[in-house]
Fold this sequence. Notes:
By secondary structure, the protein is α+β, with helices and mostly antiparallel strands. It is 21% helix and 47% strand. A 13-stranded antiparallel sheet has the order 6-5-4-3-2-1-13-12-11-10-9-8-7, with helices on one face.
Amino acid sequence: MHPVIATLMVLAAPLALGSTAEELAAKNVAARGGIEKLHAIQSLRLSGKVLVNGGTLELGYLCVLKRPQSIRCDASLQGLTEVEAYDGTQAWRINPFQGRKDPEKLSADDAKGLGEDAADFAGTLVDYKAKGYTLDYLGTEDVDGTEAHKLRVTRPNGDITYVYLDPDYFLEIRTINRRIEHGVPNETVSDYGDYEKVDGVYFPFARESGPRGSSDRQKVQFDKAEANVSADDAQFHFPAASARAVSAR
């Protein structure tokens, strides 16, 4: 091969790779329902159940998400409710199952997952440029017998999410989140399925997730979703001391 041609091919390779990544992101957005319908959903309420401890415990589960970056998820069992919430600035938790009935603020590292779920509730690849994400296409990889397209999403803080798209439908079937938390790299694998249309947009109603390499996986199954519901900002904020005192009476 002529050396000039070889050089041009090397120079063109990153451009082709980037173009492919952008094209796959566009196909994912189209598959989800299109950018206009995605932008039209400003809030989302999902209700169903979550199975933990190897499926031995079933809790009622309710998640409310609101643009630009708010989320609250409640898991209830026998009169006790665990709460995890994020208002775009501060994340907090109430965990009565561990004997902690008062709300506790979470560190920035502990809040990463909630913040990403809130920012990406319409999809990790949706508006990825506006969110400051960098996208790279890494070819295909086997996901439980499916040769899925693999995309690497690099976030502004340096954390990485690998997104696996179904080769036929271009919907997410798996993500792997690699975060640095308290100085230690952690990886969480999430598998998605049972896509249902909500106000013209497809959302996964089934999710199974857990640490990479672990058999301890949490299963979420939603049975109802409502778009553009009324969602008071107060429910996402860390409860004020006065509100906690009233609720304790």
